[in-house]
Amino acid sequence: MEILTKRQSREADKIMYAKNVPETTLIENAGFALACAIERQYDKRPVLVLCGTGSNGADGFAAAQVLFKHGWPVQIALFGNIAAMSDTVKTIAVRFKGPIVSPSLKSLDRLKSLNGLIVDALFGTGLNRPLTADIADFINKINETELPCVAADIPSGIDADTGFFLPTAPFCAMTVTFCRPKPAHFLYPAKERIGRLVVADIGIDDDAVAETKPYLFTNDENLSVLPRPEFSSHKYSRGAVLICGGTMTGAGRLAADAAARAGAGLVKVACPPELLSFYALSSKSQLTFPVDTTEDFEKAVLDKKTSAVAIGMGFGVSQKLKDFLDIIVRSGKPFVADADALGFLKSYGGTLARTVATPHAGEFVRMFPELKAFPKTEQAIRAARELGCVVILKGADTVIADPSGKAAINHETSFGLSTAGSGDVLSGITAAMLAQGLPPFEAACAAVRLHSKAGVAAGERPVAEDIIAALRS
Question: Residue 254: which of 442, 462, 437 has the closest Cα?
Fold first, then answer.
């Protein structure tokens, strides 16, 4: 699914207006969708709808009127006054036939005693400045009372493009967004405040969305298809992965095991001669051979049966690592660069078209300190453009970015993946996807998705070996 920025969302609305779909129609549709989502989720109860004077407030007024007509005891707390509304918003607001009250902190305690519900329709995606102190206090009071809250489009106080707080936001049990999700629905810290995400159709057609030129997507099956063996498959047609094993043998062994479990037909491990026995005893199904010189390594890379390479995991920063990287880059074969290899990537001047880099947040800041203040999607896209390769910026909200400017946000994951060796597993899976013929962006998206699903399947407190085992399912 496409993810739309604030600008793109406004543009999609305007495209529909140009198609003679009135703004009031889209607002009424949004309000109806919001009310229906509430009715599906909750029993009838007192509702306080927090409305601003902009379009998000209009969505709240429209939803309140639907709930009011359906017999819900609903009130609107208006932040501002009707005179400050645009003509369109005012048209929607005056249709509400229930009570409109002034915002009151005491009213939240009373609503709590009645097992009531809050609907947040204060600002939505239009917020572009910090909340005023009185509104921030009101939101903090909602959080203190732990009243269930449903947000219209996005919880107020969140920048829809970045996921940053301005400076607070309600903890919502559900967020009903319209047309398409926004970046902050999937980015931390905002994601903690979203609750269950519902994406509602309000009559903005797919052509209008396409006209906005989306460049962000959810990382789902539409972006990449996992390779599967066919009747004619053999080990070489499924791709051979070369793992560059280093002195920290656990990292290379995890990557090798993950590559095999992720579908590579053959996994080869090149390692220092003195460590051969450690790698050889790791798995009976992998080929292991000693590499002592750059000539030995070049021979292994250039072997016509080598489909993709993974390098950097547990290797140690050294000139030898840079020499090995040079060989891989010259070969033109697709490869994964992780851990110790990441610091050398800038030296190739953006010539890494068949490469996937896999930094976590700490490694990324060391590589690109100048991007530290940017939102995560922008960090990944800018880094991908500079390096000329696909970047997997890892975390609970992993972003996969292509040098073209396209990016995907991984929206399903497990916090259990924050364990030693998990990144090595991802490197192995990514190398397996490359070896099986997926282009770098599609390979990275597939690998992250597979890694995340395995993390969920492995349970709450997995170790890296559990994640690999869960790749079976």
Answer: 462
Q: Tokens at residue 269, please? A: 């491990």
Say if CB 108 and CB 81 are below 8 A apart: no
For 65-93, how does the pLDDT look when each residue is reduced to its tens digit (9 = 90+)? 999 999 999 999 999 988 899 999 999 99
DSSP conformation letters of 118-152: EEEESSGGG--SPPPHHHHHHHHHHHHHT--EEEE
- The string of DSSP letters for 440-469 reads HHHHHHHHHHHHHHHHHHT-SS--HHHHHH
**pTM exceeds 0.70, yes or no:** yes
CA distance 78 to 16: 28
Contact between residue 170 and residue 138 where contact means Cβ atoms under 8 Å apart:
no
Q: Domains in the chain and their CATH numbers?
A: 2-213 (3.40.50.10260), 240-470 (3.40.1190.20)
Give the per-residue pLDDT at 473: 67
Peptide bond into 167 cis (omega under 30): yes
- For residues 371-388, one letter each, b for 16 or more C-beta atoms within 10 angstroms of the residue's C-beta and e for the rest, the string is beeebbbbbbbbbbbbbb
Summarised one tens digit per residue, pLDDT across range 162-203 is 999 999 999 999 999 999 999 999 999 999 999 999 999 999
Evaluated on CA atoms 417, 418, 420, 422, the torsion sign reads: positive
Distance CA 443, CA 389 (A): 12
